[in-house]
Specification:
- The complex is a heterotrimer of chains A (372), B (308) and C (420).
- Chain A has helices at residues 11-30, 33-58, 66-85, 101-105, 121-145, 150-170, 172-175, 195-221, 223-233, 235-240, 245-271, 281-294, 299-319, 321-338, 342-358; strands at residues 186-187, 190-191.
- Chain A has 372 residues and is mainly alpha-helical.
- Chain A has a two-stranded antiparallel sheet.
- The radius of gyration of chain A is 21 Å and the shape is globular.
- In chain A, 51% of the residues are buried.
- Chain B has a domain at 36-241.
- Helix content of chain B is 72%, strand content 2%.
- Chain B contains 11 helices and 2 strands.
- Chain B is globular.
- The mean pLDDT of chain B is 84.
- Chain C folds into 2 domains: 11-171 and 309-386, Response regulator (Rossmann fold, 3-Layer(aba) Sandwich); 173-303 and 390-405, 3-Layer(aba) Sandwich (Rossmann fold), CATH 3.40.50.2300.
- Chain C has helices at residues 11-27, 33-39, 42-45, 70-89, 109-122, 134-146, 173-188, 201-217, 236-245, 257-268, 285-291, 293-296, 312-325, 333-352, 357-363, and strands at residues 56-63, 97-104, 128-130, 151-153, 166-168, 192-198, 221-228, 249-253, 277-280, 300-303, 368-369, 377-379, 385-386, 390-394, 400-405.
- In chain C, a hairpin with a 5-residue loop joins β12 (377-379) and β13 (385-386).
- In chain C, α4 (70-89) runs parallel beside α14 and α7 (173-188) packs across α8 (201-217).
- The two termini of chain C are 32 Å apart.
- Classes of the chains: A mainly alpha (372), B mainly alpha (308), C alpha/beta (420).
- The interface between B and C is large, with 52 and 44 residues.
């Protein structure tokens, strides 16, 4: 695996730079505002993929419920935006002006208490990180302290996703139900629906994503990162060495969830709504596959994988909507069977040695991580 | 809610409610049995389990059409033939899946989860291309519909009885296979210690393949039986997966008894809660209950002590 | 409709327009499309850069053909394609053939929003026929308002919405609920109701309106109200509750795959729908296909259209539908409403003499379609349709017998006073 002490040429940093070049310069110059907004949407999923590299690729915790955290982050942001869009002036026709439209349809006559703090932007921004992180903490604390892991944990995260989806849909007066929170308009008076605003939000999203990638890289290249790999490969030995394995797993799971939540918040801002369809099981598993296609051991790969799969999904489903599921299913199987280390693995295992043979560069190459 | 009802009525309703719980219990056992065998034996969660069930349901649909067209005289008993067809087709598909896919992934249980999810997407789209996006209605022979009146209020549903009987037979057959047959002996040996069993001359690969095929075959029978109570459409398999996984995981791997016990717990709590609360809240509470109990017993209710 | 707002474009149009309603299919033969297109130069009828050329106009079709909603939306896609091909055979719209671009919403609301934006921004569709669930409509609504598109939405839905950029060709909730409840009270002497629904906005809002009507207007009683997650398959507990409370009417708004489980289990539990009155607003002929006619025979459904309606328009429509999509395909309420979309758009464009969205939005109120399979419809000022409410009774062969229809068209009222 990638060796943080290798100072000769840090491949990962090169990858970061290439991604930055791609999303900050190449794409904005080459595609129109509509397509760029789509790319912005894909990049919000890349946050989840980065989180999955941390908890799945490096620590071996497969979560099939990352959509829960993406969704919670997105909902926190959407609640603030919805309250702003539901000013008394905008909602004159309602029987109770000043509350979100779906509450009015459900006979609520005042704002529920847990919505009130979301009138403040600082609180909402804080909640975007804090609410999912706390949820992740409660879940992971309960699970990892009891040493629930592997397939069990994956299934339980699925159940959590199911519970949250049913709750959001069932409590529609408080959450907007299956429609989600729609028609978000302004952020502190700034119209987020215009093309200009979309450009700015796109760049904010890119910068935050690069920031998350650097944060993840920092964590992984620290001593903690090596411990995580040790936990993945032989959890019992790490425990016997006196480490509290549970604490480390809890930490990394919360971190991954918080990063996913930032993606959710950016989604609400760029797309203009949030819906329970992100919280469910299917999107959660799809996000795992983005990460797997790119390479679960590579931050760069995960981002690239997300972009490629989503781009393929959009263009495929425009031309052959019916073939899309075959392609997607085939991709899952192919990646798992043939390229367990994803595109990034393909690059380091196949293409780099080739380059090396041609004599482009000398020096130690990263060794592939052991297959699980 | 009990105001104004006589004791007799209340008694009848509780009897009916217990019966409803038993039907749900049978349904859960039938759903989970195939998955549990596979999970116990190989530690593999088959995410395409629901699709194997729907494959069985579609086979039932086709069989019913063939009987209607060619041998209408034998229509009343077509269902038994359909279940056999469902078992064979789903089982064969399972064997093929094991050979093409699963056997390459034994060392990586989490990856099987993803690969079988991919398989489930492909199967869904295949159903949609072959049978159409709309749901199909599977007609039942007349004798399998309706209810037997016991008293004025208590009525016993024939298809409920049928599902219960089927569950009993299949569970019994699986138990016999596991504990009385040579294959069962091998399975138990492999579960207890894969390496040692291999050293003792058991062809673990072959045992795995048969187990997977059997598990999928049972899923096919379950799907066939569910045409009596549920819908048959390309994505109907998804409706069952979360419940099924929870039953298996809650029951604990490697234990038939665990699966049965966990199906009982989950079905009874859901059915009782549904009676007192609304359907949505009952579902949420049941799921939370299971998650909570899993924290107390992280490896499930019944744990077999094995060397890993 | 008002003719004096029309541009001075020669007599051919007004004659055409009059005829369009009565015999849409044959009328176009009177005027050659080419001449008509020349009478309406593209530069004049399209001032906002829509995808309109001298010979063609592009519209979008946006439904789910994959995912769980594909079950329901397939019929709408078929109806819209049929309507478009019929319009093209009859000479097109203002002499221009309709070309359609179909996009898949994938049963996923954000995808709907993304595809709607693509259809409007990139393809410049002159109108879009699409969406099915409320959630998908809510997701695309801001897109249509922002980019000024025109959506023809076919599904019966919960109301509480009205937009310049949407024409609702299905019923809003009161049009479907109130007349049905009045009928069942009068005919069956119903005093107690048990309300059931899938757990999302349409059944909840509809049941809310039903409850208000039952309690405040009919002065009868609701004895139970229950919701189940979408895709729920076990109904034995609620069936027991129904047996315990013995309501005169079971009022069921269960959707999708759950329907199949519900009716099969109801039948298995010995509740005989020829004795127990059950009124549903969510089961069309499409759903019966999956449920099985023998499981639901005897139930009453409150809709605006049944495939079995006897009128010349409908007979022609059913024959054409079967010719295009096969004899076994059934046609439900929403499928018929989807069929209205392209026709209403065509009539509106010809009334406005323009493809511009603003002009269409302004011209829509008052547009009449006498060729509708359901009989006759008219667009209201609030962009919903005036239409009749009908009650049908399910037969074992999966069709409905018409039992009752309102004498007059029912006015759409998406924000009903006293029901909120």
């Amino acid at each position: 695996m990638w060796n943080p002490t290798n100072k000769k040429l840090d491949l990962e940093l090169v990858g970061f730079a290439l991604i930055a070049l791609l999303i900050l310069v190449v794409l904005p110059l080459s595609v129109d505002a509509f397509r760029l907004n789509l790319v912005g949407k894909y990049l919000t999923y890349a946050f989840v993929a980065v989180g999955l590299v941390l908890c799945w690729g490096y620590t071996g915790i497969l979560s099939l419920g990352q959509g829960v955290f993406f969704g919670l982050g997105g909902y926190c942001m959407a609640m603030f935006l919805k309250l702003e869009a539901s000013s008394v002036a905008n909602t004159k026709i309602q029987s109770t002006p000043g509350i979100p439209d779906f509450m009015d349809w459900n006979q609520l006559t005042e704002l529920p208490f847990f919505w009130v703090p979301f009138k403040s932007l600082p609180f909402a921004l804080f909640a975007v990180i804090a609410v999912p992180a706390i949820a992740a903490f409660i879940l992971s604390f309960a699970m990892f302290k009891r040493r629930v892991g592997g397939v069990y944990f994956a299934i339980i995260t699925q159940a959590v996703a199911a519970v949250l989806t049913i709750l959001i849909i069932g409590r529609q007066g408080y959450t907007g139900g299956i429609n989600g929170i729609t028609d978000l308009r302004t952020l502190l008076g700034w119209d987020i629906r215009t093309d200009g605003a979309k450009y700015i939000l796109y760049f904010v999203c890119c910068v935050l994503l690069l920031g998350s990638m650097f944060l993840a890289r920092f964590v992984l290249s620290s001593k903690l990162g090596r411990l995580l790999v040790a936990i993945r490969d032989k959890e019992d030995r790490v425990r016997f060495s006196g480490y509290s394995v549970g604490d480390f797993k809890i930490f990394i799971f919360c971190l991954a969830s918080a990063i996913a939540a930032v993606g959710g918040a950016m989604f609400s801002l760029q797309v203009g709504f949030m819906s329970p369809s992100f919280v469910g099981i299917v999107p959660s598993i799809e996000m795992v596959i983005f990460c797997a296609v790119g390479g679960r051991h590579s931050l760069v790969g995960a981002v690239i994988g997300t972009l490629i799969v989503n781009w393929a999904k959009t263009s495929f489903s425009e031309t052959f909507p019916e073939l899309w599921l075959f392609a997607m299913g085939g991709l899952f199987i192919a990646v798992v069977l043939a390229f367990p280390r994803g595109l990034a693995g393909l690059f380091t295992d196949q293409i780099l040695p080739l380059i090396k043979r041609v004599g482009m560069r000398t020096g130690a190459l990263p060794k592939p991580a052991p297959a699980e | 809610m009990f105001m104004g009802y006589s004791l007799g009525e209340l008694g009848s309703i509780f009897a009916m409610q217990a019966f409803a719980g038993l039907i749900l219990f049978s349904v859960f056992v039938l759903m989970a049995l195939g998955l549990a065998i596979i999970f116990g034996q190989m530690g593999v969660i088959n995410m395409a389990h629901g699709e194997f069930m729907i494959l069985g349901a579609y086979m039932t649909y086709m069989t019913s059409h063939i009987f209607q067209t060619y041998i209408p005289g034998a229509y009343p008993v077509y269902f038994f033939v359909a279940m056999a067809v469902a078992f064979i087709v789903s089982g064969a598909a399972g064997l093929a899946t094991e050979w093409l896919l699963i056997r390459h992934l034994y060392a990586r249980p989490l990856d099987t989860l993803l690969a079988t999810w991919g398989l489930s997407l492909i199967m869904q789209q295949a159903f949609r291309s072959i049978f159409g996006a709309r749901e199909v209605g599977v007609e039942l022979p007349q004798w399998m519909m309706g209810a037997l009146p016991v008293t004025d209020v208590i009525e016993v549903q024939i298809n409920g009885l049928f599902v219960m009987g089927l569950t009993l037979i299949i569970t019994g057959a699986v138990a016999l296979l596991l504990y009385r047959s040579r294959w069962g002996l091998q399975v138990r040996a492999v579960v207890a210690n894969r390496t040692m069993s291999g050293a003792a001359g058991i062809d673990t690969r072959r045992v795995d393949r048969l187990t997977f095929g059997l598990g999928c075959g049972i899923a096919g029978i379950a799907g066939s039986a569910f045409t009596m109570i549920g819908s048959t459409g390309p994505t109907a398999g998804q409706l069952y997966i979360v419940d099924t996984f929870l039953v298996v995981v809650f029951g604990g791997a490697q234990s038939l008894l665990g699966t049965i016990f966990s199906a009982f717990t989950i079905s009874q709590s859901q059915s009782t809660l549904e009676f007192f609360l609304t359907g949505s809240m009952a579902k949420v509470l049941t799921l939370l209950l299971v998650i909570g109990l899993l924290m107390l017993r992280p490896q499930g209710l019944f744990v077999l002590k094995v060397r890993r | 409709m008002s003719f004096d707002q029309k541009r001075p474009t020669g007599p051919s149009l007004s004659r055409r327009q009059l005829l369009a309603g009565t015999a849409a299919l044959s009328a176009a033969a009177l005027v050659s499309p080419h001449a008509l297109a020349q009478a309406f130069p593209t530069a004049k009828v399209n001032t906002t850069g829509l995808a309109v050329t001298d010979t063609e106009v592009t519209v979008g079709i946006l439904h789910s053909v994959t995912g769980t909603m594909a079950i329901s939306e397939t019929g709408s896609v078929q109806a819209e394609k049929l309507a478009i091909s019929q319009i093209n055979e009859a000479g097109g719209v203002l002499g221009r053939k309709i070309k359609f671009i179909q996009e898949d919403g994938g049963s996923d609301w954000p995808t709907f929003a993304e595809k709607a934006k693509k259809l409007l921004v990139q393809d410049k569709c002159a109108s879009v026929m699409g969406c099915w669930t409320s959630a998908s409509r809510k997701a695309v609504l801001p897109v249509f308002e922002q980019y000024n598109g025109m959506l023809y939405y076919p599904t019966f839905y919960e109301g509480l919405e009205q937009s310049k950029n949407v024409i609702y060709t299905g019923q809003e909730a009161t049009q479907q609920i109130i007349a049905g409840l009045d009928w069942v009270t009068k005919e069956k002497g119903a005093k107690t109701f048990y309300l059931l629904g899938s757990d999302y906005i349409w059944p909840r809002t509809s049941n809310k309106i039903a409850r208000k009507h039952i309690e405040n207007h009919l002065k009868t009683k609701v004895v139970g109200e229950e919701y189940f997650p979408l895709g729920h398959t076990q109904f034995n507990s609620v069936i027991n509750k129904i047996k315990l409370t013995k309501p005169d009417v079971i009022y069921a708004i269960i959707v999708g795959g759950s329907n199949v489980a519900f009716y099969k289990q109801l039948k298995a539990a010995g509740i005989d729908l020829s004795q127990q009155t059950l009124l549903t607003i969510s089961v069309t002929e499409d759903e019966i296909d999956g449920i099985g006619g023998e499981n639901i025979a005897g139930a009453f459904a409150c809709m605006k259209y049944f495939q079995s309606l006897k009128n010349p328009n409908n007979e022609k429509f059913v024959a054409a539908f079967h010719k295009m999509w096969g004899d076994k395909t059934v046609i439900g309420d929403v499928t018929q409403a989807a069929y209205l979309g392209p026709w209403l758009w065509k009539l509106t464009v010809e009334k406005a003499g323009s493809f511009d969205i603003d002009k269409i939005a302004a011209a829509s109120p008052g547009v009449e379609f006498t060729g509708a399979p359901e009989g006759y419809v008219k667009i209201h000022e609030n962009h919903h349709l005036w239409s009749k409410t009908r009650v049908g009774r399910a037969r074992t062969d999966g069709q409905y017998d018409l039992i009752y229809e309102t004498a007059n068209l029912v006015e759409p009222d998406p924000f009903p006073k006293g029901y909120q």
